[in-house]
Amino acid sequence: MQRTGYASLPLHGGKAPSWLTGRMRRLAKEISSIIIDEYGTERFLARVSDPYWFQALGCVLGYDWHSSGVTTVVTGVLKTALTAQEHGIVVCGGKGKTSRKTPNDIEQASGRFGFSEEEMETLTYTSKMTAKVDNTAIQAGYQLYHPAFFVAETGKWAVVQQGMSAQAKTARRYHWLSENTHSFVVEPHNAIVCDTKHPVVLNMTAKSSRKSRKASVDLAKEPTRKLKRLAQDATLPVDKQQKLLSQWLPDASAKPQFAFLDMPRNINWNALAEAYDKQPTNYEELLAVKGVGPATVRGLALIAELVYGEKPSWQDPVKYSFAYGGKDGVPYPVNRQSMDQSIQILQEAVQAAKVGDKEKSRALQGLRRFVPLDAKAS
Question: What is the pLDDT of residues 50-95, one digit of tens each?
Fold first, then answer.
């Protein structure tokens, strides 16, 4: 699965006023209709999955470009603005309690579009796995709370979902696109937009975590009593670990080194017992087991390092920052081509929209706040 990007933004509370959301809904419907008519539903999904375009859309609709509310408000507005009959796209899920209704929303969308039972089940599984990967396979301290699953009449889809970190006081947004689907668990990121890069993040989707993923699967296929013993061994002093685990280590005289060994205490042993019964053949199947959460994934990764010496990646997969990227290229250069395309498409859509001149002027001013319209790529 290739994820096209995610953004980390200041965590803002409160609620968008009704006068603003009403205006945003009208403008969003106009812009979406023009883009879908001009380019089709699949191109619209590709635009939504582009973090630059999504951020620019939030500015056009009149919302602060750097607020965490961009995700919740814009996806909420699109959910009410887009219809199966008029646009051929439906938005499933949403914030808080609404997020738990995502499977029901997908079922209703499948009925409107005439999808088969198998197609509906595939979409439901995809929704659950994108959430599982963002919440569990990458552990940066962000709890997922707002999934939005875009489904088109062609069966293609996109995901825009957000996680919240109360400690860092930021929200991180994740974008997915079906067109780039290859694997749920191997390097799913194309662009990662984040204000905060954390020094220690467990990233089981990194290519460098390949052996750790395999070792985790191998461990999950072992009886839970053996895993419990290994987890207990991991909490002992290094010299005792060495003695207890010498049968697995190639060189008994070498002292193992673990940079971030911190065994979680709330591993879901019932889930691991279910995994043992299912005998997963790959890491995706392991993640898909109900009850396998962050603590269980982390515990398996740490035991895999302790027993097999297969270290997972502890690098935050951040590639670009709205706050610190830019013309100086720190920490990463702006994807100017993507940003220029976002600006051009939105500018043309606003100009063609059947709304008043005042609303067009406001929308273009919002886009200028995102980046000057006369800026040229070099």
Answer: 888 888 888 888 765 555 678 888 999 999 999 999 999 999 999 8
Q: For residue 298, how many other CB atoms are within 10 A of its CB?
A: 20
Asked whether the beta carbons of 311 and 204 are under 8 A apart, the reply is no
Q: Are residues 187 and 228 in the same domain?
A: no
Compute the distance between CA of residue 106 and CA of residue 73 in angstroms, rounded to an integer: 20
What residue spans of 133-190 are helical by DSSP H?
none
Domain count for the chain: 2
Whether 254 and 338 have beta carbons less than 8 Å apart is answered as no
In a domain, 314, yes or no: no
Asked if 263 and 340 sit in the same domain, the reply is no
Name residue 148's beta-bridge partners.
93, 160
The two structure tokens encoding residue 141? 């301290």
Ramachandran angles phi, psi of 320, nearest 5°? -155, 145
Type and span of the H or E element at 50: none
Q: How much is the pLDDT for 345?
A: 83
Greatest CA separation for the chain: 78
| Residue-level length of the chain | 378
